[in-house]
Amino acid sequence: MSAPPSPFRPARVAKWLGCLIVVALLAGGAWYWHPLWLPRVQAMLASGQPGQQEEKEKAKDDDHNHDHDHKGHSHDDDHDHGKGDKHKHDEEEENVIELSPKAIRNIGLTTGKVALSTYQRTAPIPAVLVERPGYSALEVVAPITGIVTRVNVIDGQAVEPGDVLFEIRLTAEELVEAQANLLARLEQLDVVEQEIRRLESAITSVNGEKVVPFAGKTLLVQKYEKKKLLAWIRADRQRLLLHGLSPEHVEQLIRNRRLISTVVVRVPRPEQLRGEPVPDTSLGHPLVLSRLAIRPGQHVQTGQTLCVLGDHQVLSIEGKAFPQDAPGIIKAFENRTPVKAVIDGSTNGHLAEGLQVIHVSPNVDMETRALTFHVLLPNELVSDVRSQGRRFIAWRFRPGQRAEVYVPVEQWKDRIVLPKEAVVVDGPQRFVYVKHGNHFEPREVHVEYSDQRTVVVANDGSLKLGETIVLKGAYQVHLALRRKQSGGGGDAHAGHSHPH
Question: Which of 16, 120, 319, 459 has minimal CB crowding within 10 Å?
């Protein structure tokens, strides 16, 4: 007998219908939102499982951190081992900046070794460059009275001893008369010498003895006359020299037997005007026509100033020492201690060292209470050109320039003395940059003293002897490091950096 059929179960049917509805809803939602999730699934399938990708990112971060630790350890070891160690500093380190070789050349960076030296502390005294009294200004005067017929120079022109300055046509009657008297006596001397030769030829000799004929007395008179004429000629020569003619002019007058109508005035030797001996080997040096006092066609008197020549081969620095600085100046003068000076009194001024104080005034100014002193300053030519047949020169130092004289006060031993450009001022801090290859590290130091050119750094261990530091260009390196630390990357003129 067969079994009866299973009865119908509505609950099971409803359960299956509900599952179908949920699947349909999920499928519809997935289809509706597929633009959002489908690209991500495809990218995940292309690059691997999500867990593996996270592990790769984590491993990469661990390697990056480990590299930081390793480089930081190498940087510390550099301070322990000293100079010469080469390290590869990562540019993400906060306290190190790397510069390319081109950047180093662009900023003109120079380096040097840390070493100890003795620093001579000095006191600055204001001063000014002046011409040496009685030495630098050479006045050329008219040797005779006459009319200026030619002027060969202009203001500012450079001349040398022997060059022609002016031509003067003499008009002084006494000078013409003196020349005429000399010429007349020269002619008389010629006549007397001719008569003496004639009388001497009339002397005969008998038995080897000289016999004086009747002309002997006349011969004796002529010899006395010759001596008299020579004496007058010597007097006339001196008279012409006193009237302003040069020895060359007098010799020319005697040789040519013609009156001199025009006198040529030449550049004298400075030693001659100062009364100094002129060395035979001295070739002289250029002088500058600082003032022209006459013009062509002008009538001038004997002794009148024609021009003033400037001899600026050696100038004088005139300083005013106040009471607190006067003892140092007097001590330097007495002990012949060298001093130094900065011309123009600025950071970029010219530094002159090894100078000598040559004079200290015996009096103190009643109003300013300052003591005047002078320091010799050797000069040097910086330009020598010719234009339209004239020569123009320029000296490095000129009267009127401002200066500062530095007088020694005390000595500091075992100090690190650096140029001012080597130390960077950042608020209350002072930094020196230590060089490791192409990497530069700031090192904070204590500055004991500084002036316009020099900085004295304490020898307290901040800098090690023998380390290589930046002497010029430290400020540009500092700007590059600050820009890097602020997130702006390396300075365009100093270094470079890579994006993180």
Answer: 16
